[in-house]
Amino acid sequence: MRHASQGLWQSGGSRRDLSRRDHALDPAREPPLGAHLVTPRRGYTHHGIYVGLGRVVQYGGFSRGLCRGPVEEVSLSQFAQGRPIWLRFEESCWFNRDEVARRALLRLGENRYNLLTNNCEHFCEWCVRGEHRSYQVDELITFYLRAWHGLIERLARALLLRRNSAEDPVGKITLQLS
């Protein structure tokens, strides 16, 4: 697995962007039908569903710049964009592989991409588990909530210290005499 991780670093991604459930796909082998595929991008991972014959169904998202793209069928090489591909092994797959591929193909042409509420990971999680979810978005929200709570906590401490200093002129004198 070390070799695959080196490829990730060279391609601008990091193993941190992937899950423990993700395993490197051997480039010489075809993924299994209905496989949840993941490929690193700079700062995030892109997701798709393998539907056979070298084709992947993905949410195009912002792959063409600022214009959002629809759910589309592309080749494995278009999906990967020169980066390694990883297979996401689900702990609980609600549907068999044929059904996962069928669900992905059903949404071809859908054009309601939204980075926070309907992205490529939401799409794949729905295909595989029937759950409209993005772990990347969950992590991002958690990160910003923690940062926000930390900022509020620091501001509250600073205001409390300032208030206590203003109410205790003896403390100021003691500090000045020390």
Describe the structure.
This protein has two domains: 2-133, endopeptidase domain like (from Nostoc punctiforme) (endopeptidase fold (from Nostoc punctiforme)); 139-177. The protein has helices at 2-10, 76-80, 97-106, 120-129, 135-167, 169-177, and strands spanning 22-24, 36-41, 44-52, 55-61, 69-75, 86-88. It is built from six helices and six strands; from the N terminus they run αβββββαβαααα. The chain is α+β, with helices and mostly antiparallel strands. A six-stranded antiparallel β-sheet has the order 1-6-2-3-4-5. The chain is 43% helix and 20% strand. The longest helix has 33 residues, at 135-167. Helix 3 (97-106) crosses helix 4 (120-129).
Question: Topology of this structure?
Answer:
Blueprint: H1 2-10, E1 22-24, E2 36-41, E3 44-52, E4 55-61, E5 69-75, H2 76-80, E6 86-88, H3 97-106, H4 120-129, H5 135-167, H6 169-177
Antiparallel strand pairs: 1-6, 2-3, 2-6, 3-4, 4-5
Helix pairs in contact: 3-4
Q: Please give the oligomerization state of what you see.
A: single chain
Percent of sequence in beta strands: 15-25%
- Helix vs. strand class: alpha+beta
Q: Termini distance?
A: 60 Å
Strand order of the largest sheet: 1-6-2-3-4-5
Which segments are poorly predicted (pLDDT under 50) over 5 or more consecutive residues?
1-16
**CATH class bucket of the largest domain:** Alpha Beta
Q: Under CATH, the topology of the largest domain is which?
A: endopeptidase fold (from Nostoc punctiforme)
Biggest sheet details: 6 strands, antiparallel
